[in-house]
Amino acid sequence: xxxxxxxxxxxxxxxxxxxxxxxxxxxxxxxxxxxxxxxxxxxxxxxxxxxxxxxxxxxxxxxxxxxxxxxxxxxxxxxxxxxxxxxxxxxxxxxxxxx
Length: 99
Prior knowledge:
Elements: H1 19-23, H2 26-35, H3 50-61
């Protein structure tokens, strides 16, 4: 058995935090916020997008504004992966010149 439940190490990362679990972090985060210029809280529940969802929930519990969504990309250039990562596949579109 691994900490956090389950039988494999990966089992403990396939987890969404409950509101009660997140509320348990509010007092320590607020205390650190009173003593420090910045406080960063990292989530290690890296299955799917659980860490992002839990970060949004924690921010809401702390009364922080939700971040703006990322703008849509203006162009996506598909570069098929090859064994030689520095060189695109022969059928890939040309890469833009470096800036």
